[in-house]
Q: What sequence folds into this?
C-alpha cells in the first residue's frame, strides 16, 4: 500500500513558508480515508492556490493512487485554529 501521508508531505512542504507547522491526521470513516492537513494560517492560500488549482492538482495525484481497501481517499485542508 502506498504511503499517501509521505507523498502529501513531499508535495506540500516545498510550497509552504512554515513546513514545521504541517501536520497530517488520518481519519477513517465508513466510505473514506480522510487526510486532514493542518497548516499555518499564512500557508493555507499557498496550498489552495489561485482558484483552487494547487489543491486540485494535489488531489488529482493522490486520488489516482489505488488503495488496498474499497474506501475512497479525501483531502481536507484545515487551519490550526479549528
A:
Amino acid at each position: 500500500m502506498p504511503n499517501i501521508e509521505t507523498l502529501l508531505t513531499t508535495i506540500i512542504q516545498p510550497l509552504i513558508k512554515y513546513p514545521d507547522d504541517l501536520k497530517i491526521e488520518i481519519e477513517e470513516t465508513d466510505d473514506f480515508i480522510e487526510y486532514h492537513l493542518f497548516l499555518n494560517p499564512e500557508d493555507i492560500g499557498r496550498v489552495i492556490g489561485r482558484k483552487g488549482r494547487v489543491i486540485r492538482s494535489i488531489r488529482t495525484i493522490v486520488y489516482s493512487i489505488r488503495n488496498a481497501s474499497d474506501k475512497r481517499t479525501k483531502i481536507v485542508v484545515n487551519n490550526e485554529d479549528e
